Amino acid sequence: MTEARTAERQHEERVPMAAPKALYIHIPFCTNKCHYCDFTSYVLKGQPVDDYLDALEREMELTVKELPPERIDTVFVGGGTPTVLTPPQMKRFLESVKRHFPLVDDVEFTMEANPGTTDPEKLAAMFEGGVNRISFGVQSFNNELLERIGRIHNVDDVYRSLDNARAAGFTNLSIDLMFGLPKQTIESLEDSVEKALALDLPHYSLYSLKVEENTLFHKLYQRDELPLPSEDEEYSMYVHLMDRLKGAGYGHYEISNFAKPGYEGRHNSTYWRNEAYYGLGAGAHGYAGRKRHVNVKGVQPYIDYTHTKLPRLETHHVSEQEAIEDFMMVGLRLLEGVRSSSFAAQFPGTTLEDKFGDVLDKMLKDGLLERIDTADGDTVYKLSDRGVLFGNDVFGAFIGLEE
Ligand code: SF4
Fold first, then answer.
1. What is the Cα–Cα distance from 309 to 301, expressed in whole angstroms?
2. Ligand 1 lined by 226 (C-beta under 6 Å)
3. Structural domain harbouring 75
4. Residue 80 CB–ligand 1 contact under 6 Å
5. Is the pTM of this model over 0.85?
6. Dihedrals φ, ψ of 328, to 5°?
7. In a domain? residue 307
8. Ligand 1 geometric centre to CA of 34 (Å)
9. Higher pLDDT, 5 or 181
10. Are residues 135 and 235 in the same domain?
11. For residue range 185-199, what is the model confidence (pLDDT) as tens digits?
């Protein structure tokens, strides 16, 4: 370890660790495994779900003991498919979250759900348990395509689930749509986006397919048996989705996310602002006091660990340089951009221009970033319209500069 790093760590050890205000909890069970999925998720059948919920309670206890929360502004329960819990399991799980973490009155409490796993009884348990936002993994309004990517639901399930959610009292609803899927055509995507917009939801998320290792799609890809759209087609799909959603009055607030005013996801903004969050559950990540952790994966190993200690697979000290790069990489995902003043507040003694002057100049010259000097004397760097289309190239340019 260099002298500078030692000094940095000693400084951090003297500074009291601020408690995160955001909480992520992972439920790693799914009815089946989608063909493209590399998340920590296991097929539900035969899994010790009640034991897992016991283990989560133990992790909650250990977590609040180690780093007591002052207030929790946002909760996100992801997976996996959290809505595979039965109504009694759901009730018990949500009660234990509230028992361990002090949720503020206007907490944003999101749960991911899959269409087809949300009957009225379960939705009632979620609503009564404090969930106030649901993010549905819809992906497409084309049954053939849904089957091709290994989803368990069909389009009727989508409509039924959303009707059930509204009837249960939920108004803050979001759906995910995917593009760049095998054999997906631009016409089929256009049809999906029209059907999605007809639902008049406050929030939509868009994701392109990434072929990840250890997935069925990766095997097919290696055998040249995955008929993906061309890069140009995928690009046209993204442009169409953006134009259509913006045209329908949705604000494009993050590279993959669109919302009606006031419905921007608050929890994920924690990640994009590089702020701290608790992360609980098998395979979950957390970030607090310049340390990132990854929990053990595997349901039984996770359960076993929590009997004696926090279930950490690894804990990693984030150096200042890494934190600075993360700040840019995730911050630029937000279309409002990054502010020099926020950078200076997180990294006193340095400026954005000191650290990234050359890259910023190049990105501005190439038309990928815009610079705005605000009336209050701040400077903002944000993705240009062109930069939005080449986001990954822009984010990557800020990484590894000091190596
Ligand atoms: S529902 Fe989500 S987490 Fe579960 S297998 Fe499919 S993509 Fe993975």
1. 12
2. no
3. 16-272
4. yes
5. yes
6. -75, -45
7. no
8. 5
9. 181
10. yes
11. 999 999 999 999 999
